[in-house]
Specification:
With 368 residues, this protein is an alpha+beta fold. It is built from 9 helices and 11 strands. It folds into 2 domains: 113 residues, Release factor (Methane Monooxygenase Hydroxylase, Chain G, domain 1), CATH 1.20.58.410; 244 residues, Alpha-Beta Plaits (2-Layer Sandwich), CATH 3.30.70.1660. The strands form 2 sheets. It has an 8-stranded mixed sheet, sandwiched between helices. The chain has a 3-stranded antiparallel sheet with strand order 6-7-8, with helices on one face. The protein is globular, with a radius of gyration of 24 Å. About 5% of the residues have low confidence.
């Protein structure tokens, strides 16, 4: 049994190292601070603040729970191994299987060590826009939307629709979602960029191979104190009626909101809430997050020309290609990671691509 105890001790040490790398001690202190605030008799007098505190605490607890559970199970199994050494040596095979299971759980948690960016543990806004390629591009945008919805189902991420614009013939023109989960931005930042589809067009009677494009934008949700201030004179606010499939009006009042940031040309719309006030607040929050991300990219030199330097969803800019004809392959052009299982990828199996990108980014950061 000695070698089993050595394995368990090694796994405990690795789990603690990973917890330190992810600054979980700071998160535990923040959780205790929020719990103390909840215990205050006057906590619910400010309901807006109370809701935010509850959401923040729930998010931290979800981040901490897998590590806490693993540590508890390691201690219990260590005690069981020590006991079995003298009293039940016949349990060795069963104990070895339990250790294998714990090692697998640790490997799953180790994935989070790749998410050390400032905003990697933030929730995320995911927007999809049809690019060049006509109806095929709009249909491709719908395929990407389904792919991300299926991914969120697979990993139990909460996803909320903010705005969606249907195309006339097929597919969507654009869609904007908020995704809430521990390290949501860390997962989805690999998806930011132009995506390319090659296939026999179902909308072309001549069965010609068609190339189409879609743009995916990924923006972390930022804490209120990090959001840039907005000037009223820089904003153009349009009100309109939210519409659903076929163009029918969802609401009889103009509750949907579209905000244009005049200096940059950024446009954000929200139409999912019944209240115009709620839609405006959501749109402003998304706009502020996009402006903050844009400023960070500018300072990092990743955008050559901020004014007018919009990334177009067209040839030569793609980060990933989905080829259905004449062969089947999905390839990420940054990491060179690829798979021939196109259907599984389009059904939401994206974790391998996300992990490959995170490892690629970590390597690039270490070399620069």
């Amino acid at each position: 049994m000695d070698n089993l105890l050595v394995q368990l001790k090694s796994l405990q040490e690795k789990n603690k190292t990973l917890a330190n790398l992810l600054n979980l001690e700071l998160k535990e202190k923040e959780a205790k601070k929020l719990q103390a605030e909840q215990a205050n008799p006057d906590f619910w007098r400010d309901q807006e603040r109370a809701v935010k505190v509850g959401q923040a605490l729930e998010k931290i607890q979800k981040q901490l729970q897998p590590f806490t559970d693993l540590e508890i199970d390691l201690k219990e199994l260590k005690e069981l191994v020590s006991l079995a050494e003298t009293e039940a040596p016949e349990l060795r095979g069963e104990l070895e299987l339990k250790i294998i299971d714990l090692e697998k759980r640790y490997q799953d948690l180790e994935f989070y060590s790749l998410m050390s960016g400032v905003y990697d543990d933030s929730d995320v806004y995911l927007s999809i826009h049809a690019g060049t390629g006509g109806v095929d591009a709009q249909d491709f945008a719908l395929m990407l939307e389904r792919m991300y919805l299926r991914f969120c189902e697979r990993v139990n991420f909460k996803i909320e629709l903010v705005e969606r614009s249907l195309a006339n013939e097929a597919g969507i023109k654009s869609a904007l979602y908020k995704i809430s989960a521990p390290y949501a931005y860390g997962y989805f930042k690999s998806e930011h960029g132009v995506h390319r589809l090659v296939r026999i067009s179902p909308f072309d009677g001549e069965d010609l191979r068609q190339t189409s494009f879609a743009l995916v934008e990924v923006t972390p949700e930022l804490p209120t104190e990090s959001l840039p201030a907005l000037k009223d004179e820089d904003l153009k606010i349009d009100l309109f009626r939210a519409s659903g499939p076929g163009g029918q009006n969802v609401n009889k009042t103009e509750s949907a909101v579209r905000i244009t940031h005049l200096p940059t040309g950024l446009v954000v719309a929200c139409q999912t809430e019944r209240s115009q006030h709620q839609n405006k607040a959501t749109a402003l929050s998304v706009l502020q997050a996009k402006l903050h991300q844009r400023a960070l990219l500018e300072r990092a030199g990743e955008i050559q020309e901020i004014k007018g330097g919009v990334v177009t969803a067209s040839w030569g800019r793609q980060i990933r290609s989905y080829v259905l004809q004449p062969y089947q392959m999905v390839k990420d052009h940054r990491t060179n990671y690829s798979t021939s299982d196109v259907n599984n990828v389009l059904d939401g199996d994206l974790k391998s691509f996300m992990e490959a990108y995170l490892r690629f980014s970590a390597k690039e950061g270490a070399e620069n």
